[in-house]
User: Fold N-carbamoyl-L-amino-acid hydrolase from Aminobacter niigataensis.
Amino acid sequence: MDRSPLSSLPLTIDGEALWRRLQELATFGARSDGGVDRPALSATERAARRRLIEWADALGATSHIDPAGNMFFRRAGIDDLDPVLFGSHIDSQPNGGRYDGAYGVVAGFALLEAAARAQLVHARPIEVVVWNNEEGSRYSPGAMGSALFAGQIGLDALRDVQDADGLRFADELEATIADAKAAGARERKLGFPVHAFIEPHIEQGPILEREGLPVGIVDGIQGLRWYRVTVHGSSAHAGTTPRAARRDAFVGAAELAAALRAPTIDSEDAVRFTIGRFRVFPGSPNTIAERAEFSVDLRHNDDALLTSLDEVFTELAQRSWSGCSVEMERVMTLSPVSFDERVIGLLEQGARTSGRSYRRMTSGAFHDATHMASLCPTAMVFIPCAAGISHNPLERIEPHDALAGAEVAIAAIVALAQS
Amino acid sequence: MDRSPLSSLPLTIDGEALWRRLQELATFGARSDGGVDRPALSATERAARRRLIEWADALGATSHIDPAGNMFFRRAGIDDLDPVLFGSHIDSQPNGGRYDGAYGVVAGFALLEAAARAQLVHARPIEVVVWNNEEGSRYSPGAMGSALFAGQIGLDALRDVQDADGLRFADELEATIADAKAAGARERKLGFPVHAFIEPHIEQGPILEREGLPVGIVDGIQGLRWYRVTVHGSSAHAGTTPRAARRDAFVGAAELAAALRAPTIDSEDAVRFTIGRFRVFPGSPNTIAERAEFSVDLRHNDDALLTSLDEVFTELAQRSWSGCSVEMERVMTLSPVSFDERVIGLLEQGARTSGRSYRRMTSGAFHDATHMASLCPTAMVFIPCAAGISHNPLERIEPHDALAGAEVAIAAIVALAQS
Assistant:
């Protein structure tokens, strides 16, 4: 067993078992190219949830699911205090990797396993959490389960949202909850007091690898704004309609996309501006597009800069683009988040105790920790991923980094469970 | 009955019956917005084909279907000569109108009806033709049935083409042929000698309406080139990946699309350049696109100009666009077409006999007549459509124009059938 090097840690983590669980979880929704396609609330994700319930059963933890589809695997404490939460998510992008989200959940099971083996006694309940629908690629917005848990959004407004195949969110959620209950999970109400939350996660960026560090202790998350843009033109025959008579929604949308992008090009390369979804309708080669729809994902550390870009965007959306009109809706707003200094301090202490070098850093991606930070003391631990590649089947991590991150995070959460 | 005004025409066309048939055909695949969605080889198109067979039965014409899915409704001549063909297509764009294609087919049934009523005797067989898959929006390329009939392309290369739902062309074709045979159509071999072809069609452009003319006699079709462009980038996380580290397929494709469009912007507004299909993959808001695919539809009267633009396009596709590589494939090439002067002369004579004012004009759209012109003397008749709008549920024509165009075209085809 590749055990932790220092006996001063509260628990000894089994690195091989952690790696085996990671690879087993990756078989649910495995793609032929080595990646994972495990959409939130899908049949493959339901099967993965059932497997987690089996893992929890074997480790003496009780399984729970709340009305938002979040799952909790609970190891009782000796006192009836607010629990500490530890975990991440298991849904993936359509062409996702094996470790985004999955790493934090499997680190949670490494904690349950080590605690069971050591017969660890702790004051507070320790709960491994699986937040529902973090990716948001099947049902928008992302980080939905933690946002619902933290009361940032309400469930009613989401029920009728449909995925690309026309399947309703409420139906898929209900089926997932029924499936989990059939496998032994207990129902639980949405939202409860939490003492602290730690989320281990892969970095999804290049910094730790470049600096040769196994661990990042994350002290905050950059702010994010998501927009949904619709450009309305007029369909007409591609062969007969002169340029002057066209209102081509593709041309209008492409011009608007370039205009929105221009003010985000900063010399520091710190603003993140992405159009990841772009569709034209009806989508026929010889018909001028009558409508185009695209997404905008905008992020930066500085909320004031995001607000000023928002004003520029709003002004641009009021113009006409190649004769087309524009609707622009802001569908998600996350202010930059600063994590809890006490939790950060316990993580730094965990890194020192386990002899792992680390750096403090800010997260470029949003995470479920974004919403939890509004509810309880929260922080995150990052481990490096190869070339910073994520949301891609090529996503890779190293077993020794997976163990290092788990040790640091588990040291802190166990300390919090004792207090 | 709104009969033709002049007795010197060979047949008296029933304008009300022609209009009723147009509206009945529009019920197959009717959209709630008044348009038509009748994809080639679909269940709705099969039902429409069955209805045409019923029409033909009632008018004493025999129904035939060939291995390309083209249908022929034949009224025998007194001699065993090569037939004259008259017709168009019944498939539509996904958000198409009621008259594109349908008008030419219904004009054919107006001919069969008038000939039956008058017990017209003619030397050559007269066949109303329905060319398969003219639009090309479900299975590329467009004008497929007439291209197969004329030997411009082969059937084998098309069999495994799939539509957006993964349905194979060969399977859908086979099911359509079986359905037509069950309804009474006879099998016929692909391709046979044709004496002449006339295709009545809506203009799909603004010229006839603007000039207040009921009829256009079409002396040619502008040339067309279709391209399929794929831009290869690399997917990565939208929140963590610096701009400098991105190979964003959306950004590359949008830049390339603008670069391809730039040299087509001519002061005469005569070049037609359209990107009607544009897709990004995986299409998730917080994932940088790894791939973008788009179509290019390029048209002009002058083949040399199309060739020089083709060279510019090829050069542009060899460059790197925001770090992305490009594959560009030319999937259809149609040279500009000049129609047969004798057929044009008969159409002009028909217009004079029926007292309909007209102009000669070039077609901006390609049609099945493009391919037929390589096989036999061919021409087209246009009627105006409101504001030139087509490939759109708002497509509109006037009953008196529908009658005028049918009279002119029928006068010419009957003259050709006697020769």
Observations:
- Residues 1-7 of chain B have pLDDT under 50 and may be disordered.
- The longest strand of chain B covers residues 223-232.
- Chain B has two domains: 15-222+336-417, 223-334.
- Chain B touches chain A through 69 residues (CB under 8 Å).
